[in-house]
Amino acid sequence: MMTTAPLIPQITLLAMGFTGILCIAVPIVLLFVFKGRFQTKAAPFFFGAITFIIFALVLESSAHQYILSGDTAIGRMISGNPFLYAVYGGLAAGIFEEFGRFFCMMTVMKRYMYQRENAVIYGIGHGGIEAVVLGSFTMLQNLMIAVVLNDYGSVEAYASQAGSPEAAASITSLLNTLIEMPASSYILSGIERMAALVLQIALSVLIYKAVVRKKYIYILLAIVLHALIDIIAAFYQTGLITNLLLLEAIVVIYAIAVAVFAYRQYQSLRYDDY
User: Fold this and answer.
1) Residue 124: Cβ-neighbour burial (10 angstroms; 0-12, 13-18, 19+)
2) Which residue, among 20, 234, 202, 17, has the nearest Cα to 101 in the 3D structure?
3) How confident is the model at residue 24 (pLDDT cuts 50, 70, 90)?
């Protein structure tokens, strides 16, 4: 008896699962390793996670909805121009997240600013929850959909369960995307999430230095560095960059360069600074 090959290969399912687990496991491992080595508190980790949720997922998303969803001239101008859309998205991410970082360190995290290691713990929380939300949740959701699709055996059979033609069309588009996506794309996505985690830790160190040294130029620097990499990533989403491997190489190299710079700033902090 002949069996048909699954619509989504086993190797692709494994790549989805691996990336999903990676994005959860790495921040947790980093937290325990760093906390154990430097005898720090876990509170900054949770401050970082909560700050990302409030300033990125709630406030920034609300701003996007207000600016882009309404039938306004500026919304149409941004949405209709891929370059402007990328620049707008990058700047919005930089402004909301870096001011969120700064606000947190100036307020609720103030009692933990005596130890520079807490900047790293904060960054693990901030970047870790981003990895979980954008990496793990997405990958594990895709994995569940892919498994069900393989059980149905065809896109048409899966889409037929939708309640309306519009929903069926949307599901069909999603399923076709999953089928066409190679396993390597999911691995590259995991690498990108890890690079983003490194970048979030580095930016947290820069904001920490801005607070303890009162050198607020580092806030502007963090916004620019954050915005720039998000703009480059948005170029891929809008089709201005079409080579995924090139994009991921840029992201990784950029994250390493910013991390090296942030490490030098970290090393320059003396205990009498805070």
Assistant:
1) buried
2) 202
3) very high
Cα(257)–Cα(44) distance, rounded to whole angstroms? 25
Angle at alpha carbon of residue 19, lines to 16 and 20, rounded to 5°: 80
Confidence of residue 271 (pLDDT cuts 50, 70, 90): low
pLDDT tens digits, 34-50: 999 998 999 999 999 99
Q: Give the domain ranges of the chain.
A: 10-267
Return the DSSP state at 1: -
Supply the pTM of this predicted model: 0.93
Residue in this structure with the two tokens 């390493």, named with its chain if needed: 256
Q: Which residues touch 44 (CB under 8 Å, ≥6 apart)?
A: 109, 112, 118, 119, 121, 122, 125
Residue 270 DSSP label: -
CA–CA separation, 61 and 89 (whole Å): 10
Residue 274 has pLDDT above 90, yes or no: no
Average pLDDT, the chain: 93
Q: Percent helix, strand, coil in the chain (nearest 5)?
A: 85, 0, 15
